[in-house]
Write a structure and sequence with these properties.
Layout: E1 5-10, H1 12-16, E2 29-30, E3 33-34, H2 35-38, H3 41-46, H4 48-64, H5 69-76, E4 82-87, H6 93-97, E5 102-104, E6 107-114, E7 121-123, E8 140-144, H7 154-162, E9 166-170, E10 192-195, E11 208-211, H8 215-228
Parallel strand pairs: 1-4, 1-9, 4-5, 9-10, 10-11
Antiparallel strand pairs: 2-3, 6-7, 6-8
């Protein structure tokens, strides 16, 4: 008997309890920077060194962080379900916790790419500097989808959403589009769960269970519900 497919959309709240700060909690500032200075094509054009330095610091933060109970709990659900994670996060904590199927909507901080190519990326655990170039001669930059850039993985994510037997949202405010719009592609009749310390507006969703808790305790409650077969 095949396992039911559980699709989980995760956001910054999942990694916050691993010590990775989120910009949504600080009035649009991220580690003291205006997000558009460090996470937009305009910011890159204005001061590429600042952007590289910012992501070099964030990369160190990610490498020093450890998966928390929410990451581990979602990975553990693979014993019971065909789990597909769609994450807005650029860290690798889902993978390190043991999740096998992870789609990164907004890129990965442990990858870099040429400014001349959006399709080919390279692994990176150290720093990127001005003057570091890809084989095609283009300056290397983080393989991150910045604000005002296209989200190339949105179509595969929509396809995954349409195949869900169960759907959960964990640690996201559902305000960053197009990722926030993915919830509308879940089949209307399936059970849906939202876990966040502040439940985002989602009253249009049918068959919805809200778990207003931080990600670590909320995922534990989700596991209890799913394994007991109750809502």
């Amino acid at each position: 008997m095949s396992k039911k497919r559980l699709v989980v959309l995760t956001g910054a709240g999942v990694s916050a309890e691993s010590g990775l700060k989120t910009f949504r909690d600080s009035g649009g500032l991220w580690e003291g920077y205006d997000v558009y200075e460090v996470a937009s094509p305009r910011g890159w054009a204005n001061n590429p060194k600042l952007v590289l330095d910012f992501y070099n610091m964030r990369r160190k933060d990610v490498l020093a962080a450890r998966p928390n109970a929410a990451h581990v709990g979602l990975a553990d659900l693979q014993h019971d379900f065909d789990v597909q994670i769609i994450t807005q996060n650029v860290d690798d904590l889902h993978e390190r916790a043991g999740s096998h199927n992870v789609l990164h909507l907004h890129g990965e901080i442990l990858k870099m790419r040429s400014v001349l190519s959006e399709t080919e990326s390279f692994d990176i655990t150290g720093d990127i500097h001005l003057g570091d170039v890809a084989p095609d001669g283009g300056q290397l930059r983080p393989a991150i989808v910045w604000f005002e850039e296209m989200v190339p993985m949105i179509e595969p994510a929509i396809e995954i959403m349409s195949t869900a037997d169960l759907f959960a949202v964990v640690g996201t405010s559902l305000i960053v589009y197009p990722a926030a719009g993915l919830v509308n592609y879940a089949p209307p009749h399936i059970p849906k769960y939202i876990i966040d310390k502040e439940i985002p507006y989602a009253q249009s969703l049918e068959n919805l269970t809200a778990i207003e808790q931080p990600a670590t305790t909320g995922v534990r409650e989700l596991i209890r519900i799913l394994r007991n077969g109750t809502r």
